[in-house]
Specification:
The protein is an alpha+beta fold and 448 residues long. It is built from 18 helices and 13 strands. The chain starts with 6 loop residues before the first strand and ends with a strand.
Length: 448
Amino acid sequence: MPNQPPTAIAEKPAGFLRAFRDDTIGTFGEIQRKYGDIVRMRFFGPLHSYVFYHPDHFKHILVDNNKNYSKMPAPSFVVMQPLVGKGLLTSDGDFWLRQRRLAQPAFHRKRLADFGRIMTSATTNMLDSWQPNQSFDIQAAMNLLTLEIVGKTLFGIDLVQDGGKIYDAVDLAGESIVKLSTNPLGMLAVRVPFVPTTRKLNEAVSVIDQVIDRIIAERRADPTDHGDLLSMFMLAEDEETGERMNDRQLRDEVQTMVLAGHETTALLLTWAFYLLAQHPDEYKCVLAEIDAELGSRTVTLDDLPNLTYIDQVLNETMRLYPPAYTMARYCNEPDVIAGYDIAGKSVISLSTYHLHRHPDFWPNAEQFDPERFSAENSKSRHRFAFLPFGAGPRQCIGNRFAMMEAVLILVTVLQRFKLQVAAGYVPELEPQITLRPKNGIPVSVTPR
């Protein structure tokens, strides 16, 4: 008899899917509390699913035996394909490796230095429009800012004119994808255009496609090398065939970079501003570091190694509110993890949110404490207990880009303004494609 992990069985065929749809984070947590760090779930028929919470399991799946765990056909990626196609986020195998190699030079340190100047300039322009005692949603502000930055740095274009349309479309697409991925027939429904949720998803994708298609058409009309990621993709030739990417392949990669390259960083900053507003002692430490290292001088890439406490704040923010709060994989062949037999052709969920709160590795896990990430306190921690950008070959290609951007924006904002969260505000988690605060976070700003 196979040695099965503890098995959670839903009372109704779609019980777990409904629970994940209604309360994704809470359901993952309840399953861990009841059954432990490896849980097998039976939905209906032959479909098996496993949820993992322990750093050792993340290491095995993402690194040690990563070739056995693909992204497709995991349901969440199948229903995401209308949005990002076969870009870096969803592709596998040789095609993914080729695209990854093409994109990698765009994130080398030399290019990041040039990107840094664009990031601080865009942030300064945003701050120039802020008024004393002005109130607004900081998540919306960060989304527009990071959208502008990803457009200018990676594609040499201004996306701000389309920012509102893209933001609303991404919001609708994310809601639709979550509904489809927690529907037992979602993988089929996403291919049926008259299903209401699929129709909404397709409408959102159409809005984004109009913007992306215009970007590609404009660049096709001016095929010179602009030195950015889009030029790298357009000019790259297949080593064997000599072919270049067609418009569909370009669309998928641009779409992936635009979506993955702005919302995750925007959410990191949103949650960081919220946490600092709620924790005045840590906020004072951040300001002290800024004043000591920079004063009023514009922050640059060279300053980052000296801004250690700010780096700790951002890491602690991602521990508590990881934008990528869960990872999905598909187990192709049978495997053994921690002595348990894992069935082939099964769906794998890795709960990053609960990994970052695992009581064996994070004492007082609900508490905001940037000192967890001091050099001294990080020495003995399990290397895979903190994975905001994933691990192994599929680790986020833009992790250094995102961290640099987050530090530069955070510092530039806090040099000039103090942010206060609206009195009595308590965020409600909204797990969509990323982990958002429902309806944003209302803040007011006053000059320092």
